[in-house]
Amino acid sequence: MATEELMESKNKLRAPVSQKPLKIEKPTDLTTIGGTVSVEINEKKVVVPLGTTILEACKQNGISIPTLCHHEDLCVAGVCRICVVEIEGMRTLQASCAFPITSPIKIKTSTPMVRKARRHIIDLMLSEHYGECYSCFRNGKCELQALAKEYGVDNLTFGHIDKPKYEIDNSSFSVVRDMNKCVLCKRCVRTCIDLQEVGVLEAIDRGSKTHISTFMNKPLADVICINCGQCINRCPTSALRANDPSDRIWAAIDDPKKHVVIQTAPSPRAAIGEEFGLPAGTSMTREMNTALRRIGFDKVFDTNFTADLTIIEEGTELITRLYKALVKKQDVALPQFTSCSPGWVKFLEHYYPEYIENLSTAKSPQQMFGALIKTFYSEKNGIDPADIISVAVMPCSAKKFECNRPEMHASGFKDVDFGLTTRELARMIKEAGINLPEMPKSDFDSPFGEASGAGLIFGATGGVMEAAIRSVVEFVLGKKTEDIFANANIIPLRGFEGIKYMEIPIGDHVGPVPAILKHLIQDWNWLKGATLKVAVAHGTANAKKIMDDIKTGGKFSECHFIEFMACPGGCLGGGGQPIPTTPEIRQKRAQAIYSEDESLEIRKSHDNPHVRRIYEEFLTEGPSGQLSHKLLHTHYVKRGSYIA
Amino acid sequence: MMNQEKKDRKGTVLFSKYARGEAIKKALSQTREDILFELRESKLKGRGGAGFPTATKWTIVAAATSKTKYVICNADEGEPGTFKDRVLLLEYPELVLDGMVVAGYTIGAENGIIYLRGEYEYMKKSLEDYLHEMRKDKLLGREILNKTNFNFDITIRMGSGAYVCGEETALIESLEGNRGEARNRPPYPVSTGLLGAPTVVNNVETLASISHIVTKGGLWFKKYGTDKSTGSKLFSVSGDCEKPGVYELPWGTRISEMLEIVGAKNTKAVQVGGASGTCIPKSGFNRILAYEDAATGGSIMIFNESRNMLHVLKNFMEFFVEESCGQCTPCRIGNVKLLEGIELLEQGKCTFSYLNQLKELGKTMQIASKCGLGQSSPNSFISILDNFKEEIFDGNGGTYGK
């Protein structure tokens, strides 16, 4: 009886209760009595809202407390114990990250007891942490190292492990796991279970044998990891990192026979400055172009160009689907889902394989570019595609997996040879002796040239949808987007709310069908009076909410087009971006992207003259034509939750 | 089951006369406040070892407004050297289960759960039979003893052998189907327990004591024991003695008295409170067993002159290295370091300065670990090294460890 009840309610819980945020009912109006509590921190009286953690209270009052397992994006764990403080009247020290203030306590943050405990804890971690700092890619950016330095823990009191305990798992194209560096802060576990709701990583075994592992201890490539790399972004040490191809890229650059080209996505340029000590949100687009050329890349292209192309192809696909559904009354899969985010694509393939038809068949901008480089570009320039090495700098670890998908050989070669993360590129730039912020500015190379602002905002959550709507509105209504949305900024689709929803009524006035779509439809009359419903989700936990709603026939099942991004914040929060990541940092990267968009002359994908040219010169059958289907579209795999 | 043979156990409180269902009948004729009053009067403290006042725990949960509440009987008797709950559950289930029903009535819970130690699988059947009998006699189920609006039932859930699951929040995690790992406190189970509901978690013996308190009153209970440790206690006595077993003795009994009762000779040391307790040398045998002096959840291990204390300690530390849940740093790695220190001692390679560092580490573990496991695991390390220096060290910087 009770057992069944337990099990039933258990199914609704995704994560262990201990890992959920603390449930403290806060009065909504904090000015009322009881809404705040007065505490003493280091003999200074402060007033904080009820339920504030000690850590938060200290932070608000300029008192720094070291943390390791704590992360702003994640729920409380309280396991590393580095943040312990003394509370008057309590026998034991308390983890400040996990202690909600509900009574007028007296807190001391730097007593001899506290300092000794912190030193001991750091020393213990170091004793089990294999390897030396100088042989580690996180050297200088490691939170454990920083703590050891801060607390003067430099003589390995409790010894140091001299043999690795675990084999390094580099089975995955995207994520490498080296558990010898793990300090068991469980940030990756909380990222995977709570933040992304994928649930690939968990602690297994107990006592001194405890370690983080996968289902049945399988290699990462053989479990349902979606390669989003969010765990990498939150790992304090180098236990998790991306699968780095830079050595092979260097080799290609150094090989005179190889023509090495690189395409750069919108998000890396908004974040790479952070790797060079610049504040978050400093755009480095043109400086990066110069740096890439100096490193030795033969051509530097802008992925935003194929983002524009994606809008045309994916938009055409949407219109075709709607036409089939509304006019021809055919059974087509709607809503259409975006397919730019390879993490999201794999997530759907594993968790909702029955919705595979809803995924747009349009490739992601990276893969479209790859296919064009080894066909259109190689033909035009008389370069044998076999000699082209195509690199893509992406904010993403899943892009490494994507370019290795067997479907991605439309050109007859591997369309994109290497996916490189922002972090890895920054290292290559440094290795080449280049200080990025000092670089003179330069433009992208032709023949693809510049791209529109619509392609640029792909980097932020809601960006793909905004770009699509900027075009669709003009195609269908025959009006300027600016006439409907001030400055062509579609504000309801911006911001970091988990799920965004928007309706666009078409009304009774439709425009003429633009030339680019004439081969598909005659007029827009069939859309008169309709309302276009779109939604945006970022982070797979939010994606899951929408998918479950669609499954039960809820509000989102009536949508026509939904943008999904696997990572919180969209690509700018991707698993290949500079570490650390916080909501504030992601906010600033988004600002950088949106303000660059506003500074551009061309801000709609269909206005991009280079896009028009490619349909005139190369993809002559137009969007969704035969050649575009061969090169720019793909298919997916129903993977399911179990891998044999 | 009903005819489970009882040994002729002697005791003034727990093993005193008790008729099945008596406490439930008495409780249902009273108000919740009356029961809480008696409980407060009795000054009963938790028998699991931590000694939290039971009345306080119950009062908080009783006052909670939540519709769903739970009563959990902690029968995960895992402390090395403890086996008294086994006796209660096998021979005196009426005391424990009636205590749970009284708890349900007092705090307003409808669900009781016995979290039974994995190794006690063999008693599951007899307990279930007993629950069945209770339901037949309306001592369990809907409208117990025809009291309107009082429904209460008990289910048995099995543990899987992790020591840490005896810690109440880890126990709750385990019940929810998660890894057995202690939660952050606060919030405490009394406000946020099983599935987020206010929950009372009581040791088997605490619940058994309650059945007596409800029947005979708090004043009667208080007559036994000391002022700060009222009533009596079941002690699981093992080791070098003639009559090991479970004894009921009032709190305040001297260790030397107990040694006499159980027929221990040439005793060198007594480990009070299991592996996580303290080791008391001969000079401390006049200490009393009580919360205020030598506290214990019931485990008494006796070592005579033939025992090597370093080996005893090593055994304890090996236990903790394996049984730490592994989530917090001080406990997961700290216990390993303490064990490694013992191994160095055995080899005669442990310097005094390193040993002192390890003792300091032990003190950090006592205050910085997340739960009671890591907070108490260095106890025996510190007490054995302090109390048996002469045995362990030869005075020349080496050890007699081997």
Describe the fold and architecture.
- Chain A is α/β, with parallel strands linked by helices and 644 residues long.
- Chain A has helices at 2-11, 54-60, 112-127, 143-150, 187-195, 230-234, 246-254, 266-271, 285-295, 303-326, 342-351, 365-381, 398-403, 422-431, 453-456, 463-477, 481-484, 540-551, 583-599, 609-617, 626-632, and strands spanning 36-41, 44-49, 84-87, 94-95, 106-108, 175-177, 202-204, 211-213, 240-242, 259-264, 299-302, 336-337, 388-394, 418-421, 499-505, 531-538, 561-565.
- Chain A is built from 21 helices and 17 strands.
- The radius of gyration of chain A is 26 Å and the shape is globular.
- Chain B is 42% helix and 13% strand.
- Chain B contains 16 helices and nine strands.
- In chain B, the strands form two sheets. A five-stranded mixed sheet of chain B has the order 6-5-9-7-8.
Query: What's the tally of helices of chain B?
Result: 16
- Amount of helix of chain A: 25-40%
Number of extended strands of chain B = 9
Strand content of chain B: 5-15%
- What is the first-to-last residue Cα distance of chain B? 50 Å
The profile of the biggest β sheet of chain B is: 5 strands, mixed
Q: Would you identify the regions of chain A where 5 or more consecutive residues have pLDDT less than 50?
A: 1-27
CATH architecture of the domain at 246-305 and 366-438 in chain A: 3-Layer(aba) Sandwich
Question: What portion of residues of chain B is helical?
Answer: 40-55%
